[in-house]
Structures are given as structure tokens and as C-alpha cells.
Write a structure and sequence with these properties.
It is built from 8 helices and 6 strands. By secondary structure, it is of the alpha/beta class.
Length: about 200
């Protein structure tokens, strides 16, 4: 199984030097995109809610960027954020927007799960069951593919980039924590590496 970092870095390599807008939902993937996607062109832009907890932000932000004239938009979402964003796939399909939605599925509300663990709490409703985002997207008019390995993602992402219009790539990933991280009610100098 691949990691979020590997998928994000591969998407960055496949689009290197291209003008694009990157949007994110909220969660573990949001921090990892900010750390591992390369913004190597003056017109490579990141639009994110910067940790304000607005699940469901990624796809609507991608729609706005595409409608404002962005030629290519990549939306990175976790499975939790994607559940909130589902209805917006109909807009992508109906308006045939060139938005590629990459669902990084670790089968949990990752950042919530991590904070619960850091505080010694039980994990309550943060572990999730498998669902096929490919089938859900197809039912809403967006073509989708399941990418079960990094080589599969590389191939399918390259194919998606060759065609205008929406696409969804569902990528199962291993559980990934965000390190270093700032604990609740802490000052920046109290950031933890996870080894504390």
C-alpha cells in the first residue's frame, strides 16, 4: 500500500512546471499536501482552509477555481472530507470542469484519530469502513478509477491529465500521522515530533 506523501509527490511530478490550482479538504492530507506538493511555477496556487476545520471545502474551492479560469485544478481530499463533498461532484460533471479529485483513503478521520491517540483517548467513530468512491462518483456523473498502488496511480493520473473534464482517483493509503504537530492549547515552541 502506498502513502499519502508518495501519491502527492507523484502528482506534483506529473504536473511539474504547469500552471494549476491545488485545493484540499481538511485533515491529515491537508498538511501533507502543503509539505510535499511542489509549487515550482509562479502560477501554481494552493487554496486551503488552513486548518479551520471546514470539511467539504476542497471540491467547492476547486469548482470556484475552475469557474474563475484555472485550466487545471487538482483537489486532494481525505475519505472523511470526500464524504462531505460528494454532492458537489454533480457540479463537476454538469459543467464538465477540468478538476481531478484525488481521494487519499486511509479509512479514518486521520487527524482526529491522531489527536485522540496523543491525548490517550479512545478512538470513537474515527475508524471507517471501506466504500467505493469510484462507484459513487460514476453515479454522480464523474468517471473514476481505483488506484491500488503507486504505479497504478502514476498511470491513471497521467491518463486523467490527458483528458479535459472531471475525474476521480480513489487511492487507498496507509495510515499516516502528521509530524511534527502542535497539540491543542499549545504554543508553537511546544510542537511535538511524536517521540515525546
Amino acid at each position: 500500500m502506498t502513502t499519502m506523501q508518495e501519491v502527492i509527490q507523484e502528482a506534483s511530478r506529473l504536473t511539474a512546471g504547469k500552471e494549476l490550482v491545488v485545493t484540499t479538504g481538511v485533515g491529515t492530507h491537508q498538511s501533507i499536501v502543503a509539505r510535499h506538493f511542489t509549487f515550482d511555477h509562479p502560477r501554481r496556487v494552493l487554496i486551503t482552509s488552513t486548518g479551520h476545520g471546514t470539511m467539504g471545502f476542497g471540491v467547492p474551492a476547486a469548482i470556484g477555481a475552475a469557474e474563475a479560469g484555472a485550466e487545471l485544478v487538482l483537489c486532494f481530499n481525505g475519505d472523511g472530507s470526500m464524504d462531505v463533498d460528494m454532492p458537489h461532484l454533480m457540479v463537476l460533471a454538469g459543467r464538465h470542469l477540468n478538476v481531478k479529485v484525488i481521494v487519499l483513503d486511509n479509512r479514518r478521520f486521520g487527524i482526529v484519530h491522531q489527536f485522540e491517540g496523543m491525548q490517550g483517548l479512545n478512538h470513537v467513530a474515527t475508524e471507517r469502513h471501506w466504500k467505493s468512491y469510484v462507484h459513487i462518483a460514476a453515479g454522480l456523473g464523474v468517471p473514476g478509477v481505483l488506484c491500488t498502488s503507486l504505479p497504478a496511480f502514476r498511470r491513471r493520473m497521467a491518463e486523467a491529465l490527458e483528458h479535459r473534464g472531471p475525474a476521480l482517483l480513489h487511492v487507498p493509503v496507509s495510515e499516516t500521522g502528521v509530524w511534527p504537530i502542535l497539540k491543542s492549547d499549545s504554543r508553537p515552541e511546544e510542537m511535538t515530533s511524536g517521540r515525546d
